[in-house]
Specification:
By secondary structure, the protein is α+β, with helices and mostly antiparallel strands. It contains 13 helices and 27 strands. Helix 6 (200-210) links the parallel strand 7 and strand 8 (214-220). The chain is globular, with a radius of gyration of 30 Å. The chain crosses the membrane at residues 526-549. Keywords: Membrane, Transmembrane, Transmembrane helix.
Length: 556
């Protein structure tokens, strides 16, 4: 008896010690197979910097469809993990549509803030209804607010894929937002002008989107003719140069200034059209136009870095649509038709830049040849296996009969053509062992580790315009479709300039197990019987046996 008492007292003492220690030592264990709640070191480094409260408002509360309930749960658990690393992070879930009397006004206010709702079709017992959900969060710190999209849509994605894509993106989305609100020093991006690049109104949405990360300035290469050294010195003040669809040839002096900027460590993004062809060129009485090679005088420049952009057009059976008018006058009808020169490109999900993206729209893209040199070339985007290459010059037509005639599939046998290539390594000057067009101070023929991105379509960054106002990049006003152009380009820019490796969080793979909706519908009655009928039946059976044995033992 005494030993039992000692054991009880010892157990109580141990429990008290554990309870006391738990108030000082906090530990969480991630037992998930994919370690989805174990934050990456980059995420930890971001949240450790906060010395004042960070308020996160998540707009996922109220009566939510099942897939959004799962997204809400995953979001809450991830934010709990962030909060466990820094108690300055506070979060709460709110229902933006709680005020039923003023729903329309609330919807207008939220959309004015750029928070687009998701319309979800809910099916329950054969009844179909439409629900409006705002899958967004707002991260507030000091006087800054950053919007966090929680839902990742992908064309043709199932419910399970949509939830998986969204959950997989959560850590990066919140880490990126935390980094933005605490950003004190911004890197600088130069928008190059002077060679017929896209006007600012067609770059407006992309530039507006990256202002949260970077300071932006414009540099005109026209000054190279009179002051090449001054232009290079000015360019060196920027961390990255963006060249968006030039249409006029570069001089050798301009190329040399850009070459020395790159060899000296400057990052660059080249969005190049090697063929002169626009959809607007077809809007004439004949509905035809000639696609001609465009000479930008950059072939030798890119050749040295290990790629060649060809003067051809990618013709792809995985296409995006265009809208044309059929008929005349009041009888005109605007119909979407297949347009094989606007490929719909699906990413391989094999790199932080292209991972977990919506389909990307290219317009009159060219193929890229990969050349053998010491630099590493990573193909980020390619045409589909069912594509071919059309040489130029070539006459392009909007003939309605041809557009609605299915093409010969067997001719589409030149697929998987590179369209976006990331080049990394120690760059050798394109002017090495050559006569230099101008004299530059401190010129180098061999540089340190660097990176550049070459994309064979200048319109990949071009947003459409309505009533002289820029629309969101990736949105097609004619078909009302959204493409992943903006996210791809922002990912690429972040990757090129991200020394802290936040973009690498996008490589994290998360698999969320979901119930089979078809099996649930087929076996609904069975499981209702198991979960409701079986417990009731067992209770009645137990009562019957209890009464039987009671009567047998006591006779009444």
């Amino acid at each position: 008896m005494k030993k039992n008492a000692i054991g009880v007292v010892a157990a109580l003492i141990v429990l008290l010690i554990i309870n006391f220690a738990s108030g000082w030592v906090y530990t969480r264990f991630d037992l998930t197979e994919d370690q989805r709640y174990t934050l990456s070191q980059e995420a930890l480094n971001t949240v450790e910097k906060f010395e004042q409260p960070v308020i996160v408002d998540v707009l996922l509360e109220g009566n939510l469809p099942p897939e959004f309930l799962r997204l809400k749960t995953e979001t809450r658990q991830l934010l709990e993990e962030f909060a466990s690393k820094n108690n300055n992070i506070k979060f709460n879930f709110v229902d933006p549509l709680e005020d039923a009397e003023n729903i329309e006004g609330t919807l207008t206010d939220l959309q004015a803030l750029g928070l687009k709702p998701a319309q979800v079709t809910v099916e329950d017992n054969g009844k179909v209804s439409q629900e409006i959900v705002f899958p967004w969060a707002m991260v507030n710190y000091k006087n800054k607010t950053v919007k966090v999209p929680l839902l990742k849509n992908k064309l043709g994605a199932s419910t399970e894929d949509r939830v998986n894509n969204s959950v997989q993106n959560l850590e990066y989305a919140f880490t990126d937002a935390f980094a933005k609100v605490n950003l004190t020093e911004k890197k600088r991006v130069a928008i190059l002008k002077g060679n017929g690049e896209l006007d600012d109104i067609y770059l407006a949405d992309f530039l507006t989107s990256i202002r949260e990360y970077y300071n932006i300035g414009a540099i005109t290469l026209d000054s190279v003719a009179n002051n090449p050294q001054g232009t290079l010195d000015q360019l060196k003040e920027f961390d990255l140069a963006l060249i968006a669809k030039p249409t006029e040839a570069f001089t050798d002096a301009e190329k040399y200034v850009l070459d020395q900027y790159i060899v000296n460590g400057g990052k660059s993004m080249w969005l190049i059209d090697q063929v002169n062809m626009e959809l607007d060129s077809l809007l004439n009485q004949s509905g035809t136009a000639m696609a001609l090679p465009r000479d930008l005088n950059l072939t030798d420049f890119f050749f040295k870095y290990g790629v060649r952009i060809n003067s051809n057009l990618v013709n792809d059976m995985y296409f995006t649509q265009i809208v044309i008018a059929l008929g005349e006058g009041n009888d005109s009808q605007y119909n979407p038709v297949p347009w094989y020169y606007h490929p719909m490109v699906f990413s391989k999900n094999d790199h932080p830049i292209n991972n977990n993206l919506e389909a990307i729209r290219f317009q009159f893209a060219n193929s890229i040849d990969i050349l053998d040199n010491s630099n590493k070339k990573t193909i980020l985007l390619s045409s589909s296996p069912l594509s071919k290459l059309d040489g130029t010059p070539k006459q392009i037509s909007l003939d309605p009969i041809a557009l609605n005639t299915p093409p010969d599939k067997e001719r589409y046998n030149k697929g998987n053509n590179p369209l976006a290539v990331l080049i990394t390594g120690k760059f050798t000057s394109a002017f090495a062992n050559r006569v230099k067009p101008v004299a530059l101070k401190g010129s180098l023929e061999q540089g340190q580790e660097n990176a550049m991105l070459v994309i064979s379509d200048g319109d990949i960054i071009r947003n459409q315009v309505r009533n002289n106002r820029p629309l969101e990049l990736g949105y097609d006003k004619w078909t009302n479709n959204y493409y992943g152009n903006k996210e791809f380009l922002i990912n690429a820019l972040n990757y090129l300039l991200d020394e802290k490796g936040l973009i690498n969080i996008r490589n994290k793979k998360v698999a969320v197990p979901l119930m089979d909706a078809k099996k649930i519908a087929d076996q609904k009655s069975y499981w209702q019987l198991i979960n409701i009928g079986l417990p009731v039946g067992l209770t009645l059976l137990f009562g019957a046996f209890f009464n039987y044995f009671r009567k047998r033992k006591y006779g009444a």
